[in-house]
Every structure is written in structure tokens, then in C-alpha cells.
Amino acid sequence: MDEYCTIFYEKEKVELTEGGTFWLSESPSVPGSISWGATAPCIATWATFQLKRVEPPGFSFQIVNTNLDEVSPRARRRSALLTWQHIASLPPNLPVIYCGGFNTQKESMTGRFLLGRSREHGVVGDMRDAWPNARVRKNVSLIHTYHGFKGEKQGALEFLKLIFRALCLCWDRQTQDLHIDWILFRGRPLVPALCEVINDNIDCVYPSSHFPIFAEFLLPRSVRLVESPL
């Protein structure tokens, strides 16, 4: 089964300087490798970009996009640790945005580790969550991002199915919150201005069983955009 964690970017605004993919397993350089009780191969794709038309030139940041295992809490914890080790190896002044389908709640052991609230193998993460830190939040009534292609219109049976899925996804720390898609960030220059749960659809047909999360970040005050010539 193929796995993709695509990162799209606007070539007119940013330049891709480097990138890569590693598998969330004990053999991260081996394509398709599986470890820790995961049910399918999972990956993290990363890309470093440099902003164009800014002064002073050279402002860079990295995006890490992932999708963690749906079933195994241990696989999610170890995958988060592996990805965090990648992030921690980067220059400390490089802003990082770590996003994707984490398939667990932020109060789970995986979420608490990444947000610096618990240890995993003696290590503590230091990511921040764009959702509570954003100056503006939209669609705050959508407490869950997993909806099973049902959107906001869920009957009693569908609601019970969602709760059951929540318990399965997070039996290591059970909650009924299905906000399982996150945008985490690291680096003082990053300030989330807006975070939104996107529930766009066409005639109640949704492109995914998860609602996407959208965030806007402000540039540091020391960096300014330069108008392009006409």
C-alpha cells in the first residue's frame, strides 16, 4: 500500500532548498518498513523552503508532514519520537511546522510528549499547537476533525461510531475529542495569526474522512516583503 504526505508550495513565493522522506519505523531509510505494532507503513515527508522577495534575504523554514498509525498507540508514540529527533537535529534558529493526521488526541501520550508535557524515552518535545495559540480561530464548534465522510450531519448511530473510534484511537488516555489533525510549530519567529477547521464540501460530499486544518503565520518583524516589479 502506497503512502503519501504531499507538500504543495507556490514556486513564485518560495524556493525549495532540500527535502526528503523517512519511514516511521526502526529502519527509517527502508521504504515500506513497519515497526511497533503499526498496521501499515507510515512516513514523514519534510521540505525546507526559503522565502523569495523578502528583506533581508534568506529567511527559511521547514515543513514536516506526516500521518501516524490509526491503531497502535505505541507506534504513534515512537513515530512522534522519531520525527521529533529529526526536528531536534535541525538548526535551532530554523522555524519548523509539523503537521498532519496524528490519529490521536492532544491529551494522549503522543500529544503530551510533542507539546512538552511528558517524556518519551527520556526526551521531551517542545512543539506548540497553532489551534489554541492563534489570534483568530474559525469553526471552533467543530471539536472533531475526524468525521467519517459524514461532515457535521451525524445521527445518533454515527455519533456513537465516532466515540468508539475515539476510544480506539486513544485508549492510552481516553477522551471524546476527535481533534486529531494538528498544526504544530517550533521557533520564536512563528506567530499563528489564524487557524481554521475547513469543512468545505460539494453537496455534502467531502474529499476526506478528516476535516483539513488551515493556519496562517505572521512573518517576523525583522523580515519584510519586497514588492515584485511590474
TrEMBL record:
Domain of life: Eukaryota
Gene3D superfamilies: Endonuclease/exonuclease/phosphatase
Lineage: Eukaryota, Viridiplantae, Streptophyta, Embryophyta, Tracheophyta
UniProt source species: Arundo donax (Giant reed)
Name of the protein this chain belongs to: Endonuclease/exonuclease/phosphatase domain-containing protein
